[in-house]
Amino acid sequence: MLNAQQVDSSFLTRFKEVYPYFYNQLVSSYPELTTGQLQFCAMLRLNFTTKEIANYTNISVRSVETRKNRLRKLMNIPSDVDLNKWMMDF
Fold this sequence. Notes:
Elements: H1 4-18, H2 20-29, H3 35-45, H4 50-57, H5 61-75, H6 83-89
């Protein structure tokens, strides 16, 4: 059985294979993003709901909302913009 860390690394690896343009564009536009933030962006790009992200990463819904807010701030995305849609259009 895979532990959470192995699932996380395989998730991002697979995401990079399927969406190389998105991933490379994100890394070149925001080089300061951590691996965890990149994975979070990938889940948003795949249109995961806040609850689905919380379940997948074993954190609370409130923690996911906090991460979304921090990501918005870091990437200068206005609060009136749908973050999932922004990631899908990026």
